[in-house]
């Protein structure tokens, strides 16, 4: 049976991450907590809106209501990477070669490892950001579609259009597909080789969490009473194929999903604070955490897939130690 080491905090948990095998919890009040031979914390922002680990997991990149972008290191040090006046930093993304992207209003800004920046203006607000798995290519989710920028060159951006508000964006790990979350209860996708559209609809609520499986074979999503897991093994992705429905519960909704780093197993967090693990092959389930006080809002596996860090809407956080 998995064991849970709880950590009761005082604010909405925006993100959980592992830096050098140490669990970190970024909260909406601007504090980043860590469990490193005891409970320690660092004040990164006056109000935190977004956080993601650097590629390689050395630091946590954060954006806040104070207009700053910071990098929090494993020892609690805070480096201010950018300051953008009064504009809220609503999205951050970590890229190759130490590059970082952030959204401030209608601007997407890329900061390179040498401190130089490049800004890309858009007609409407920038909602989501993602770097491609290979090369220096940045996807920006916006109203009526996605724009692909090439920050290191003067190349013309690629516009991928689809009517509606796109709120988040993600490349598949092999770089063949681009998928967005939408303001309506749906996902939209493009096959990048030919621009072919993929429509993934039917959710009872908005998709706010998603996670790619190992090698990009599956895409798990929240927004329903089960984790909806789309197959991406075929050349056209999930088109014409039914998704898996894992961890179905009739009395609550899935709020967070996190694929195991090496196996086709999904951690599933629910609106009542419960966490299950479910296997794609046979839908077998293991209870990882019993229901709590509030919805699960953040989850992250460590590198070996033996521990799962989690956080909730009301700050209930902790680490589940797992042996499958």
Walk me through the structure:
- The protein is mainly β and 324 residues long.
- It has strands at 3-8, 13-19, 22-27, 31-35, 39-43, 48-53, 59-64, 68-73, 78-83, 89-94, 100-104, 107-111, 117-121, 128-131, 138-149, 158-171, 177-182, 187-191, 196-200, 210-212, 218-221, 227-231, 244-246, 254-259, 265-270, 275-279, 285-289, 296-301, 307-312, 316-321.
Give me the secondary-structure topology.
Layout: E1 3-8, E2 13-19, E3 22-27, E4 31-35, E5 39-43, E6 48-53, E7 59-64, E8 68-73, E9 78-83, E10 89-94, E11 100-104, E12 107-111, E13 117-121, E14 128-131, E15 138-149, E16 158-171, E17 177-182, E18 187-191, E19 196-200, E20 210-212, E21 218-221, E22 227-231, E23 244-246, E24 254-259, E25 265-270, E26 275-279, E27 285-289, E28 296-301, E29 307-312, E30 316-321
Antiparallel strand pairs: 1-30, 2-3, 3-4, 4-5, 6-7, 7-8, 8-9, 10-11, 11-12, 12-13, 14-15, 15-16, 16-17, 17-18, 18-19, 20-21, 21-22, 22-23, 24-25, 25-26, 26-27, 28-29, 29-30
Structural key phrases:
globular; 4-stranded antiparallel β-sheet; mainly beta; 6-stranded antiparallel β-sheet; 0% helix; Methylamine Dehydrogenase, Chain H; 324 residues
Shape annotation? globular
Overall mean pLDDT stands at 96
What is the name of the CATH class of the domain at 206-324?
Mainly Beta
Q: Which superfamily, in CATH terms, is the homologous superfamily of the domain at 206-324?
A: YVTN repeat-like/Quinoprotein amine dehydrogenase
Domain Pyrrolo-quinoline quinone repeat: 40-197
Protein name: Anaphase-promoting complex subunit 4 WD40 domain-containing protein
Domain Anaphase-promoting complex subunit 4-like WD40: 258-322
InterPro entries: Apc4-like_WD40_dom, PQQ_rpt_dom, Quinoprotein_ADH-like_sf, WD40/YVTN_repeat-like_dom_sf, WD40_rpt
């Amino acid at each position: 049976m998995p064991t849970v080491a709880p950590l009761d905090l005082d604010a909405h948990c925006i993100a959980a991450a592992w830096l050098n095998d140490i669990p970190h919890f970024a909260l909406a009040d601007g504090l980043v907590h860590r469990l490193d031979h005891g409970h320690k914390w660092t004040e990164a922002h006056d109000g935190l809106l977004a956080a993601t680990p650097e590629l390689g997991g050395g630091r946590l990149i954060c954006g806040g209501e104070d207009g700053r972008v910071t990098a929090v290191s494993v020892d609690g040090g805070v480096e201010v990477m950018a300051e953008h006046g009064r504009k809220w930093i609503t999205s951050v993304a970590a890229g190759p070669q130490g590059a970082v992207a952030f959204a401030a209003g209608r601007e997407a800004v890329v900061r390179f490892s040498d401190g130089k920046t490049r800004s890309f203006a858009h007609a409407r607000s920038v909602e989501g950001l993602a770097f491609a798995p290979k090369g220096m290519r940045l996807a920006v989710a916006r109203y009526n579609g996605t724009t692909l920028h090439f920050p290191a060159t003067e190349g013309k951006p690629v516009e991928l259009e689809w009517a509606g508000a796109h709120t988040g964006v993600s490349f598949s790990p092999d770089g063949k597909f681009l998928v967005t979350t939408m303001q309506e209860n749906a996902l939209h996708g493009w096959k990048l080789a030919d621009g072919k559209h993929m429509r993934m609809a039917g959710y009872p609520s908005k998709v706010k969490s998603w996670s790619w499986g190992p090698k990009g074979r599956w895409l798990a999503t929240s927004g329903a009473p089960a984790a909806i897991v789309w197959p991406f093994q075929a050349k056209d992705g999930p088109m014409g194929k039914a998704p898996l429905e894992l961890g179905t519960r009739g009395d609550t909704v899935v709020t967070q999903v996190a694929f195991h780093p090496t196996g086709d197993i999904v951690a599933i967090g629910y609106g009542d604070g419960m966490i299950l693990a479910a296997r794609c092959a046979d839908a077998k389930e293991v209870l990882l955490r019993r229901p709590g006080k509030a919805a699960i809002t953040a989850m992250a596996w460590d590198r070996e897939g033996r521990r799962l860090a989690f956080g909730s809407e009301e700050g209930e956080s902790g680490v589940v130690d797992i042996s499958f």
